[in-house]
């Protein structure tokens, strides 16, 4: 997978978030939630117009260029928010976290801001750079799609269902278009042609003749997927208040964060149970039986989704903004960390395997009618 060069123009434009946020923080009129929402919408609108004016050729070639440019700006803003909430910087975005989206001050909010300000930001620059040079960015786009969709779905749902449901301000409705962007961007990314592979028909046939026991790496991944599926189901039952002793011990001694009334961890576990659990079963099937050409794409999507989710979940479980009674106990910290780290690492290994050795997932080549005729005679 080629790594496209980063977009310098987008990087420079996104860094304008620093002086803009600092200036707005000192405008007294922004102490009202409605003005915060209107000013935020105005800035994003002006930013979109500026991107379209300065990069008309790139936007015409691929409209997602404008989306990546605007989102790169908001990623810098999110990084500023995270650094501010952890007291690394001051005087930038207090007005927004107080009057715009106070739920960003939660531990979960801080860590999704860190992820957006680092991983998503680099992805935006890489994808925008690929568009500038007319290169493919399908794999990066699929990883971003899963990560972005998981982040926004858990965050919005948790805001509505959790203890911050009474703190929803007008700025909350600015995030609603974020639900539409993954749908449109997903169709654009999936419609891009796949990168050409060097797999010949003979390589595909030879690889697909091997049984699962002859492919130890795939066997290990299947075992991982089965174990991850059971772990996903177990944690889903835990947040659904399963009365068994095992669930009671786990939620109080290993992951008390699942009881946090902010609702993000409960929503996250239910997302895992409804979406990741079926994927684990389907992926295990695709690793066992050849020709499942859908797996490489969806492995990237789920790697992005689970990577983002586990980063936010693990970080929030131990962050100081999480009440002490809901943080991971010190005596079980090692078990919690190893289990959750493996849960995040496995989908990335699966995606890597699918990208590096894709022959097993290709559709079986059609049999040669001439060769078949000669064999019969």
Automatic annotation (TrEMBL):
Gene Ontology CC terms: endoplasmic reticulum membrane; endoplasmic reticulum-Golgi intermediate compartment membrane
KW Transit peptide (keyword) present: no
Keywords tagged on the record: Membrane, Repeat, Transmembrane, Transmembrane helix
Coiled-coil ranges from the UniProt annotation: none
GO MF annotation, one: identical protein binding
Main location as per UniProt: membrane
Domain EXPERA: 61-186, 217-351
Pfam family, one: TM_Tm6sf2
Source species, domain of life: Eukaryota
Subcellular location: Endomembrane system
Segments passing through the bilayer: 33-52, 64-83, 103-128, 140-162, 168-187, 219-240, 269-287
Record-stated family: Belongs to the TM6SF family.
Protein name, entry field: TM6SF2 isoform 2
Organism: Pan troglodytes (Chimpanzee)
